[in-house]
Amino acid sequence: MKLYFYQMSTVHLTVHGKVQGVLFRNSAKKMALQVGLFGWVRNTREGHVEMIVQGEKADIKKFMDWCSHGPVGARVENVFSEEITSVEFDEFKIMH
């Protein structure tokens, strides 16, 4: 019998480029739910998209790969990430 240990993580992401006005937040929520992540997403005053995502490291990597291009219409220049101390989330939501 094999035992599997999942590595849970919480990551703060900031996506730079043309990422507002292209449904990035809605698409990010859809993708996060699809891969099984929790957390939140919001626009920043500086024109970026900021997120905190929590889940298995492999699922966060899939999500970050998606963030590197985003939805149709987005032009992602950079995705900055930083692992942070875990905070428990039980959903993924869009913050305003």
Structural write-up:
The protein is of the alpha+beta class. Helix content is 24%, strand content 39%. It is built from two helices and five strands. It has helices at residues 24-35, 57-67; strands spanning 8-18, 38-43, 49-56, 75-83, 92-94. Strands 4-1-3-2-5 form a five-stranded mixed sheet. Helix 1 packs antiparallel against helix 2. The radius of gyration is 13 Å and the shape is globular.
Oligomer: single chain
How can the largest sheet be summarized?
5 strands, mixed
Computed over alpha carbons, the radius of gyration is: 13 Å
Low-confidence stretches: none
H/E series, N to C? Answer: EHEEHEE
Q: If strands are numbered along the chain, what order do they take across the biggest sheet? A: 4-1-3-2-5
Q: Could you report the average pLDDT, rounded to the nearest whole number?
A: 93
Estimate percent helicity.
Answer: 10-25%
Question: Ends: how far apart?
Answer: 47 Å
Any idea what the shape is? globular
The total of beta strands comes to: 5
Give the amount of beta strand, in percent. 35-45%
Find the structural class using helix and strand composition.
alpha+beta
- Given the structure, what is the number of helices? 2
Labels describing this entry:
single chain; five-stranded mixed beta sheet; alpha+beta; globular; 96 residues; 5 strands
SSE inventory with pairings:
Elements: E1 8-18, H1 24-35, E2 38-43, E3 49-56, H2 57-67, E4 75-83, E5 92-94
Parallel strand pairs: 2-5
Antiparallel strand pairs: 1-3, 1-4, 2-3
Helix pairs in contact: 1-2
